[in-house]
């Protein structure tokens, strides 16, 4: 399809447009500087420079929902903010943040700890457009987020999906575009929407605090406000709310809506035509009693199912006794209801749910044990890293002036000891720096996939 939505192509197009715009701006700046003289040219140059802005002058967007990222906070404490924030032009002395909310929160947290040296943050001015908004969401898509943050990101991205669909005339439904943007299935997006629209404020606060998971929140969103309040009281009393707890509440609500045996107004208004069939059945029974030789056929229809002889669904159907279409060779029926499943008690269903949870928990524990065993084996076998230092790097590390290195990923671990020899002219000088890894920073926007930054504490040097 010619207009099929291609996310990566859209981002690549954005990169090409930015490169072309940057080239045009640079050329225009040269012409303007030559024509207007050095003063005006300097002003144009200044407009493109990074501006250091007080973090307290940065205003988050109204839809900002991120929490403080401890890893990002630690990296900023060590090496500062490496990637400038994107901000809008000042309004009343304040700057609206387009991208960089996590960095802003990390710096605010550092200032609360008394680290005032990180107060001013590098920022660049940018006019936000659809492709910029798309790039920001894509940059945050693979971060570690809570279920509440994932839901809020999907809700925020819904407007972007509508705008993209309208501007690019994309085919299909908005939710298909939204699923492509967020990397979340359409079914999960539907659950997020139900939670966002229907969960009570108190339960939403518990969801945000990660006190209830997304499965529980999804089930709760299907309850009425009255029964959600009951769930709130149960959570407050027990300190936890599990999926079986919510399903039990759901069964209670369903039972309260329609008491078994009670006729609804709609049923009461229907003409009484169906009772004629039981009367016919009674007449047939009377005739069968008068003619015993014909009573053998219905008696043969019902028998305990035997795999060797019984192939009909009818024998295991809950409607077998009342159905007038039962046969011995039925393999498919749109009215089929499994007898065993339909006649389970609430206790049996609850026990089955608990057994399923126990199986999943056992499987998860086994996986965690296997991962822990694998990690332990890796720790028992320390890897040798080939890190060669130039004379300049050796002096910077030995003097304590340099505390981190940008390296290719090589399985570095926190607390690992490194021996880094000095090389000159391709040969070792027999001088070494001995250091311990105190921090590892990788998989962050701005770093290439196969590179990382490691923080070092020098223990000794030759």
Keywords:
Archaeosine Trna-guanine Transglycosylase, Chain: A, domain 4; extended; alpha+beta; five-stranded mixed sheet; 462 residues; 9 strands; four-stranded antiparallel sheet
The biggest beta sheet reads:
5 strands, mixed
Give the uncertain stretches in residue-range form: 28-47, 259-309
Give the distance, in angstroms, between the N- and C-terminal Cα atoms.
66 Å
What structural category do the secondary elements indicate? Answer: alpha+beta
Determine the CATH topology of the domain at 391-461.
Archaeosine Trna-guanine Transglycosylase, Chain: A, domain 4
> Helix proportion of residues, in percent?
40-55%
Output the strand order for the largest sheet: 1-5-3-4-2
Tertiary shape: extended
Radius of gyration: 34 Å
Strand content: 5-15%
CATH homologous superfamily descriptor of the domain at 391-461: Hypothetical protein
